[in-house]
Sequence to fold (203 residues):
Amino acid sequence: MIAKLRYDAALYFPYEGPYAGHGKRKKYGEKLDYQNISPDSLPESCIEKDIETKIYQMNIWHKKFADLLNVVVIVKSNLKTQAVAHVVFFSSNVELAYDALIDSDHLRCQIECNVRDAKQYWGLEDCMTVKQTPVYHSANLAMFMVNVSHAVMHPMRTHWPEVSVTDLKAWFRGRQYVGDTLKLLPEMPDSIFIARAIDQMAQ
Fold:
């Protein structure tokens, strides 16, 4: 799991103090102070156009999660105004590198758009089965069609920039209707007429 936490989420370092020898061992140690994060947790830092970016990574506790979290805190500081802002990412995989965690979070928007397209255009929302294998096939087919539609639309956007999945489906449906109609004729027209009729109707 990869997601964001509130900018002021209460996070606690694992307790490393002495054990009294009786009762349950203490779990939570010092609370994370976002204004004073230890430089030992700093794998990357850079300055670009008066903006200093520091990326911290640590394994830490949150009281709403049963397991230890892999937390990445990105702190951006404006060196001119001294304004500071930060964002907090986390993952359930404590071995995941900070750069892979950040890149994966950036994919969330694209994943959500792909799932929306699969539900809206390619039947994922209409899947009524509850058995594992049919659900698996339906979900994979819907997501596969999302990829196919984007691959088909990509070259079309050079001369049709606003083409959408709805346009694409209408375009192919028009081609199908013309082809079915021509098959009803007593004699099949020449190939040039067929190509012209299909293109005109599809458009």
